[in-house]
Amino acid sequence: MSLQSTGAGPADLNAFVGDYFPDRSLPSDGLIVQSWYRSVVEHGLEPAARGNKVVLSAAEIHRHQDFHHDYMSIAGQGVSGLAKRVGQAGFAVLLSDEHGIALDSRVPTTGSAYADSGLIVGSRWDESLVGTNGIGTGLASGSALIIHRDEHFLRENDRLSCSVSPIFDSLGNVRGCLNASCLNSNGPKEAQYLTLQLVIMYARMIENAYFRHSHRNTLTLMVKPCDEISDLANEQLLALDDQGRVIGANRAAFVEHETHGHGVLLGRRLSDLLPVDVDELLRLNNGGANATRLRVGTRLVEVGLRMPVKVRSAKPADSRPTAGIHRAPTLGQLSGADVRLQQRVARLYRVLDKDLPILINGETGTGKEAFARAIHQASRRRTGPFVALNCAAIPETLIESELFGYRSGSFTGANKKGMKGKLEIANGGTLFLDEIGDMPAHLQTRLLRVLAEREISPLGADTPLPLDIQVISATHQNLSQMIAGKAFREDLFYRLNGMTLQLPALRERSDIGSLIEAVLRDQPGGEHCRIDTTSMALLSRYAWPGNIRQLINVLRYAVALADNGRITTDCLPAELLDQAQALHSPAPVEARPPLARLAADDEGQHLLEALRRHQWNITAVADEFAVARSTLYRKMKKYRLVAPNRLS
């Protein structure tokens, strides 16, 4: 609640400022007065008191940055671009998350004074701690603004002049904040307006980049008026699902929709917004090859399309585009040609939509989240939300609010609009709890109750909400051992373990050769590359401690170094070559039986003869025996058949 929301007039506002800020005048910006009021009444802060500067520990910063890795990676270019333009003028640039925690900081070369003012990574700027400030008030109000000098609530922050803009995700929620702050600015507040416009522009650019990343595998629209010089940062972006419904939008699209009083944007069909449906728009735009102009009411707009990369590249130029939208890999694609995994997935299909929780076990990097998304897409809940929460990456102090949410005014420092938790957001869809073994013990109890009662009570809510979700959890840990050690609740384990899907490590997969080639084709430029036989042998025999995640990085590295599209051993990372050399270096004579004895059985002897006959050309030998190269590599490993040039 604010003074203005209670109907307070100018006299009341002046009285409030006079009582608590006798040496300050009434700010012209009502958002600042409201923030002052919150700081006093809701947060119990004193303007003259020393602020409780809170900075996360190094370990907490690392976990927090890891949790926001995608967001930081995408926003990084925007942060750098803004810093280049304002850094020489003495501005520090900060990027925060939705809780006001600084994730990235770029300060001028003389940075000690900025660090003393708290403009560092890991610092917390939510209003409940430091009162009115750029980041905290920008997040609380959801508005771009300037907090200049003594407009800061705490007197100790009155050296700062901050220009901020919130950053929104594609669901319209605040994702974080972009801030440019300078010290000892003696000029008027109006002198900061140009800086504010730069901050807003870069915040919109970050939003649009984050939107395109979030919806890189869906059909997206770009809409802009034809009769105006278009500001690309304000271009409307819309993401559509298979049925042509809006599943995401950038801030410009939300603002445009709200301005014209059209109600809720998410879930609207394209035909409600434009005089065409998806199929017609695809035809008019020639599958995204060109833009088209449409009349919407009295306005003429230009509409462009961005097709998912794999859909666009897979379509012949002269074929008629369809509305099919590329999604994440299906269960069938993920199981590949590995027979054991195919059998497990076949069993999984039989329990889909039977209201059974699914527990995915597997080493780090085996694709647990990819399988969870594929399960969601294969179920009847595919049109509902898929919500993922990494229980290991999010700080323990925030995981409860992230999972269960809260209502407005439920505690000091709460967002004035409240916040939906992941459980509530996932209603009607799928909740994916990654690294469930790292969930704190007290939250295990609450989650157990939610799963048992099928209802949720956010903090501050008057009545519980019914809950209809598919729960998929994943871990690389041995939960049975954790239960024995009293580190995980046994009753929660049985609530989560309606069915277990065990994912094999990459080194255990029987289709590793074809899987490597499939992953290569998915990498940028990989479709034009070919792995030579020696390199394929090394990749197939490597232990892959990081599994598919590591494989992706190795192949991206190899593609970058490949000459004329040919991946050789020179393109492989050193650690992979070092392990291969260690595995195949000559053993002492007394410990290594002669090759003839190792290949004594008929199969091994025939294989050795064929390898010599084809001068160790793996592809030629595989063709002669009519087997896959991966099978041939396993046979060679079984009989310890190694090309002569790899023995030295």
From TrEMBL:
Residues 334-560 form the Sigma-54 factor interaction domain. GO terms for molecular function: ATP binding; sequence-specific DNA binding. InterPro entries: AAA+_ATPase (IPR003593), AAA_lid_NorR (IPR058031), GAF-like_dom_sf (IPR029016), Homeodomain-like_sf (IPR009057), HTH_Fis (IPR002197), P-loop_NTPase (IPR027417), Sigma_54_int (IPR002078), Sigma_54_int_dom_ATP-bd_1 (IPR025662). The keyword Nucleotide-binding applies. The keyword Transmembrane helix does not apply. Pfam families: AAA_lid_14, HTH_8, Sigma54_activat. GO terms for biological process: regulation of DNA-templated transcription. Keywords: ATP-binding, DNA-binding, Nucleotide-binding, Transcription, Transcription regulation. This is Transcriptional regulator of acetoin/glycerol metabolism. The lineage of its organism: Bacteria, Pseudomonadati, Pseudomonadota, Gammaproteobacteria, Pseudomonadales.
